[in-house]
Design goal:
Length: about 650
């Protein structure tokens, strides 16, 4: 062991080059050679942890270079090695690297570890570098354990004359939810000479920690000249822990922009006090019911539960609730609809199925005839014992996610399957048979469909691809199939958990927007639009820059203008499963809607637009689930001028991947 460790060399800072996969720098040449040698040595030591631990306590180990002993310590089980690493780091003539610092930060309660971290954060030379590394690795750390060590460090950094240092202090406060800095951050926004950027960053941090302040945020919104400060002040007020904050938002509501209203309603409806205030204000007609959308109603109902006020509101908002067909999985859970399919036809519906999707789950079927059901999680059209499968979807069905399915048969008997308005698969051989007595939800296996169906339609013609795409998210009661003669296990219910359907009025407004923006796009200036793309890059990646919440937009132009507009204007309609909202219900009653990043045995990591990734301890979580809403809000283009919309669309059309 002595021989092996005596040859260990410290890592070199360079030379490096940019990685071909990420924006990080990676070692090359002699720096790479040393890292490879260290890797090989550590690999062997990790296989003999007991022997390595015993050796590190020997006199022979004490004679070795500190760098070698640190590497050997890191090869041990993390918790067991934290104290060893903490004891050795002060003997190095360099700052700790990311892994060494992480080893300390993950186990601050181990002997000597907290003190070592505190010493690094107290030292003026190492403070900023160490704090920056902790922020970068915050999702791997227990914020409750590490936060007490960071309060005084952040407090000192807030007073720095160096703008990047102050910015890092704001990131520490929000990333580790340092509520102890509430008053310090408020003082930043009160300062007469406060820089606009500092004020916005401080307000953003106050939003994240849930400040106790409210009156000051109210006055900031009233008096600030900067739109950015006003936006941040509204968000901080809506997320404040003050009992007066929700009422203050209601009093300001008439003066808020559409985006500020959406932000405020989203924040208030995510907590019990705010949700109660919204409902009361709606019932008292102090807030316009027209501003209330399905997602907000859903959050209100989740947060308030059986509160009589929410029941009263639901009665007033009957238009938001829709009737659906619930099927509980029994063999008798289907509708005796006696539908006949002859010649060309279209069968379509919105479907949400329970996990474990199999061929017992069905859209429509009849004995010895057609079965529009599932196999291996994929929708298929089974045309009877002679033809078997005549069309099978390529894209699997996602459980617990509303999906629009459409099946067409043309005059040649060719079957086509559409999902969420897009052609998914076309049959290779005709299936022209007449199918009688088809039942909604019926399938051959001795079990039944478990899920929900709505907007079920049968047409005596084959819709074109353009017709399916144009109409799949439109609600039209004129040609819907009535759910009569329900079998046991099938029932009709009213719910707010429905597909993203447009009313006739909303559809006309959307069509007008499509026409307007389609006409605007060719007139735009791509160079001017590139600057506006910062709006997109808060959530989306373009090239090597941008957020990691929505799909990569580097090839947006290859999709075509129609597809880009559809994704912007109706993000909830044809949403990919990976970009659904991940809803976390905390034990304190708060709801958090975010993008799911990762999970370990102790916590889940979430991501929200414009904010650092956040680690939520499972001990503080009541429940989690994915919901059929996109993190991308609707109406993003409404706040832009026509020229800005044209420029942005023109730029997006230049992105070809």
């Amino acid at each position: 062991m002595s021989e092996l460790l005596s040859h260990i060399k410290p890592s070199l800072p360079g030379p490096t080059t940019a990685s071909s996969r990420t924006a990080k720098q990676i070692p090359v040449r002699e720096a790479y050679d040393i890292e490879f040698e260290r890797f090989i040595a550590r690999m062997f030591m990790e296989r003999q942890p007991d022997f390595v631990a015993k050796f590190l306590d020997s006199e022979a180990a004490a004679k070795l270079p500190v760098e070698a002993r640190v590497l050997a310590s890191l090869a041990l089980e993390p918790k067991a090695s934290a104290s060893r690493v903490a004891k050795l780091l002060p003997q190095l003539d360099r700052a700790p690297n990311d892994e060494e610092l992480l080893r300390l930060a993950q186990f601050p309660a181990e002997p000597g570890v907290g003190e070592a971290l505190q010493a690094l954060l107290t030292n003026e030379k190492s403070r900023a570098a160490v704090a920056e590394k902790l922020v970068a690795q915050r999702t791997k750390l227990d914020a409750k354990q590490i936060a007490p060590l960071l309060v005084e460090t952040a407090r000192i950094m807030l007073k720095s004359a160096d703008a990047p240092v102050r910015k890092l202090a704001f990131e520490i406060a929000s990333g580790f939810l340092l509520q102890a800095l509430d008053e310090d951050l408020v003082l930043v926004t009160r300062a007469a000479n406060a820089r606009q950027e500092d004020a916005v960053l401080a307000l953003n941090a106050l939003s994240e920690i849930g400040s106790k302040e409210s009156a000051h945020f109210f006055m900031l919104f009233r008096d600030a000249n900067s739109p950015a400060v006003r936006d941040a002040a509204v968000t901080a007020l809506a997320k404040s822990r003050s009992a007066e904050a929700p009422k203050a938002i209601v009093s300001l509501y008439a003066d808020l922009t559409p985006n500020q209203r959406r932000s405020a309603l989203n924040a208030l409806s995510s907590g019990k006090a705010g949700a109660k205030t919204i409902v009361t204000a709606l019932l008292d007609k102090k807030l316009p019911q027209t501003d209330l959308d399905g997602p907000t109603v859903e959050r209100l109902a989740t947060v308030l539960g059986d509160d009589p006020a929410i029941e009263k509101l639901q009665q007033q908002l009957d238009g938001i609730f829709r009737e659906v067909l619930l099927l509980d999985g029994q063999d008798t859970a289907w509708v005796d609809s006696k539908i006949t399919l002859e010649g060309p036809f279209t069968v379509e519906a919105w479907v949400r199925l329970a996990p474990g999707i199999g061929n017992e789950d069905s859209l429509l079927g009849t004995a010895k005839g057609v079965q529009m059901n599932f196999f291996g999680g994929k929708f298929r059209v089974y045309a009877g014992p002679e033809l078997h499968d005549v069309c099978v979807a390529n894209k699997p069905m996602t459980p617990d996610l509303w999906t629009h399915l459409a099946v067409t048969r043309d005059d040649k008997g060719i079957i086509r399957i559409y999902q969420n308005g897009e052609l998914d698969a076309a049959g290779t051989r005709p299936a022209p048979a007449k199918w009688e007595n088809c039942q909604i939800g019926w399938s051959g296996p001795a079990k039944g469909t478990e899920g929900v169906i709505t907007e079920f339609r049968v047409l005596k013609r084959a819709k074109t691809a353009a017709e399916v795409r144009a109409g799949f998210d439109r609600s039209d009661s004129s040609d819907q199939t009535d759910f009569k003669k329900l079998g046991k296990g099938a029932r009709i219910a009213k719910t707010i958990d429905t597909p993203p359907l447009l009313t006739e009025e909303a559809a006309k407004a959307l069509d007008a927007k499509f026409a307007k923006f389609t006409a605007l796009a060719p007139r735009g200036d791509p160079q001017a639009g590139k600057a506006l793309s910062a709006l997109c890059m808060a959530c989306h990646q373009i090239g090597n820059a941008g957020g990691q919440i929505g799909p990569n937009l580097s090839g947006a132009g290859a999709m075509g203008l129609e597809a880009v507009l559809r994704n912007i204007l109706t993000p909830n309609a044809a949403m990919e499963p990976g970009y659904r909202i991940y809803r976390v219900e905390m034990k304190n009653g708060d709801l958090i809607d975010a993008f799911f990043v990762s999970e370990d045995k102790d916590a889940v990591v979430i991501r929200q637009a414009g904010l650092p990734d956040r680690r939520l301890p499972k001990a503080d979580i009541r429940s989690t689930k994915f919901i059929r809403r996109s993190l991308m809000p609707e109406g993003l283009l409404d706040s832009l001028q026509d020229k800005q919309v044209a420029d942005l669309l023109a730029y997006l059309m230049t992105l070809k991947g």
